[in-house]
Write a structure and sequence with these properties.
The protein is of the alpha/beta class. It folds into three domains: 116 residues; 237 residues, FAD/NAD(P)-binding domain; 120 residues, Alpha-Beta Plaits (2-Layer Sandwich), CATH 3.30.70. Helices cover 46% and strands 14% of the residues. The protein is built from 18 helices and 15 strands. The strands form four sheets. It has a six-stranded mixed β-sheet, sandwiched between helices. Strand 10 and strand 11 form a beta hairpin. It starts with 10 loop residues before the first helix and ends in a 49-residue tail after the last helix. Keywords: Coiled coil.
Length: 650
């Protein structure tokens, strides 16, 4: 057919009109690039501990952001989108490789643990089988005895009945037959008894053989592990690993300064990580386990005596502590003294004779300790103010104070008709805000301990104008009957500004025997968590732990929780045993990276993002040496990666 316009329509002209395919391809490439930019900008950070850890619970607060409408982005395809696309692909490959390596390590550990479990199961089953066989043999012997007794009785009764009717010859023949039968039955009984005795002896011998077999297997596994050590693999010792002198195994020396909860926790985890069962079947430390030297400034009498400080442990932290210490003694609000004592007992049980603490060791110069002790690594957990400002500045780990405020602390000796744990669950802040007309006022009650005080009452959130209006009269040491009276002893007539709120709190808690004081609650953090100390011709890693690294105010209730999790992750991911090479500072790169990410995530630390782009600080200058000594060449300073894993390099 022809159209009115003239010419006929061809087969190509008859198909429906379609948009240009090249235009669609350009639009698709442009949308993929924009999606990759959004994925890279919103990529989550690397998680170094299992998913059950609640970061909001450990940080002490939950920030709720209101959803905001994102502005429409201009669709454009540029070099940045292509670069982000390559970076995203590279990060996916790295995460995939890390997961694959982790699965291999877990499978290897599971297989190594399965050897011992399979051996124990085999021993139990074999012993049960032999015991069953011995019982069956004894039962057969007893049945044969019973059968012989019944047969003898029947034959005797039958013989007596036939004796009156039989002749003398027949009696003689029957007597001979009965005697033969009795002898045959007795021989069968003796055979059954002999078989039962042999089966029982075999069962006893099997137990001995199985025990020897178990010891041989353990010795073979220990020999295999020893053969993998650098000293044996390098040809230092002969192939006869059985005669190996364990004293010749090279061990690293790790110094842990501070025997508080964090220091004891690190020592306990190191001992548990390198504990094994040797060829003799005894659980002990591996021959290449690091030698841990724990130093404490306090005396032995004053150690584990801080019962006036209670720690709020989260549920996830309690579960981890119970699992690692093989106990169920951890509760929220337990004193620091009990935490230290539990860690110390577990460490002594695992490490044995090597679990020793150098009491009265006040260390002020870690560089001198590194020189005199010949340590391969120093873990510093001696507290917030254990290092001088000059030393921190030279080392590159200066402490910066972030968000800080003054807090009023009331120490209550007695509660009239109330329980501190029940009062701690009440909304005391709302009553104080409504009575005192301070919207930002916050109140927290922490239970005390018997014999010293009933509870502590913390009042914070006051503005700087209100705090500056208070005029201190001195320290309040006299116990008062009400909160308002105790606060008036501290600031005098200026206490009228806070008096309505304190009276409302007094009606709720009905406290007596009260003293009052001001304290500073602040966020503090060091510049770096991993530093370097010079020691002869090498650099020794200097790792900050616990409050020496950073912390948060008391009311967040997450400072020690976070420290325990960080130390557990550090000990798990770093190989402290001697592996043929030096213990370089680069092995602690992930620990430094997680710390910098924590500073960036929490704005109260007041750390700018530029600190994440700084490299590892240079090592401290080496001490002056004598003229006749030759100075070794200065090693190259290592740098840690600046950005956390999984972030885009934008």
């Amino acid at each position: 057919m022809e159209e009115p316009g003239g010419g006929a329509l061809s087969s190509q002209d008859k198909r429906p009109l379609e948009p240009d395919e090249s235009d669609d391809q350009d639009l698709q490439d442009q949308s993929e690039a924009e999606d990759l930019l959004e994925i890279v900008s919103e990529a989550p950070t690397d998680a170094s501990w299992p998913a059950e850890v609640d970061e909001a619970e450990l940080d002490g607060e939950i920030l709720i952001e209101e959803p905001t409408e994102k502005p429409k982005k201009k669709k454009s395809l540029d070099a940045a989108a292509l670069a982000a696309r390559r970076v995203c692909k590279r990060l996916r490959q790295e995460r995939k490789a890390a997961r694959k390596a982790k699965r291999k390590a877990e499978a290897k550990a599971k297989k190594r643990r399965g050897f011992g479990a399979d051996l124990e199961a085999f021993l139990v089953k074999t012993k049960e089988r032999l015991d069953t066989k011995a019982c069956e043999a004894e039962a057969a012997a007893a049945a044969a005895l019973v059968a012989e007794a019944e047969a003898s009785r029947e034959k005797r009764s039958t013989g007596a009945a036939n004796a009156t009717h039989a002749t003398g010859a027949m009696d003689l023949r029957s007597f001979v037959a009965r005697t033969r039968e009795r002898l045959a039955e007795r021989s069968e009984l003796e055979k059954a008894t002999e078989e039962a005795r042999r089966a029982k002896a075999a069962a006893l011998a099997a137990n001995v053989d199985l025990e020897a077999f178990r010891k041989e297997c353990q010795a073979r596994i220990a020999q295999r592990l020893l053969a993998k050590m650098p000293q044996v693999r390098g040809g230092v010792f002969d192939n006869a690993v059985d005669d190996l002198n364990w004293a010749g195994i090279t061990r690293r020396r790790i110094a842990i300064v501070g025997a508080g909860p964090v220091g004891l926790w690190a020592a306990m985890l190191l001992a548990q990580k390198y504990r094994w069962t040797d060829g003799s079947g005894c659980a002990r430390l591996r021959p290449d386990a690091p030698e841990v030297v724990l130093l404490e400034a306090r005396t032995m009498e004053s150690h584990c005596t801080r019962t006036d400080i209670r720690i709020a442990l989260s549920s996830s932290t309690r579960a981890m502590l119970d699992q690692q210490t093989k106990s169920r003694s951890f509760t929220s609000g337990m004193p620091v003294a009990e935490i230290e004592d539990t860690f110390l007992r577990r460490w002594k049980k695992v490490a044995g004779q090597e679990a020793k603490i150098g009491y009265g060791s006040s260390i002020t110069d870690p560089a001198e300790l590194c020189q005199t002790g010949q340590f391969d690594c120093i873990l510093w957990a001696a507290g917030r103010r254990s290092l001088s400002d000059c030393f921190r500045k030279d080392l590159g780990c200066e402490v910066k104070t972030g968000d800080s405020q003054r807090v009023v602390v009331f120490q209550v000796q007695e509660l009239q008709g109330a329980d501190a744990w029940q009062l701690g669950s009440l909304d005391l802040s709302g009553a104080a805000q409504q009575a005192g007309r301070y919207p930002g006022l916050r109140v927290m009650l922490r239970p005390g301990f018997e014999g010293a005080c009933a509870c502590w009452l913390w009042v914070f959130g006051l503005s700087n104008e209100v705090l500056e209006s208070f005029v201190l009269k001195g320290t309040s040491t006299t116990q008062r009957d009400t909160l308002a009276q105790a606060f008036e002893d501290l600031v005098g007539a200026t206490s009228q500004l806070l008096r309505p709120a304190l009276e409302a709190l007094q009606q709720r808690i009905r406290a007596a025997g009260i003293t009052c004081r001001f304290v500073e609650a602040a966020y503090w953090s060091a510049d770096h968590a991993v530093c370097q100390l010079p020691s002869s011709d090498r650099l020794v890693p200097f790792i900050l732990l616990g409050d020496a690294l950073g912390g948060k105010p008391f009311y967040t209730g997450s400072t020690l929780n976070r420290h325990l999790w960080d130390v557990a992750t550090l000990i798990e991911e770093v190989e402290f045993a001697y592996d043929g090479g030096p213990l370089e500072v680069a092995r602690f790169a992930m620990y430094e990276r997680r710390y910098q990410e924590c500073l960036r995530r929490i704005p109260e630390f007041q750390r700018p993002r530029t600190i994440l782009l700084q490299s590892l600080p240079k090592p401290m200058p080496a001490p002056r040496q004598k003229v006749d000594e030759t100075r070794p060449s200065e090693p190259k300073t290592l740098s840690l990666p600046a950005l956390p894993y999984g972030r885009a390099l934008m």
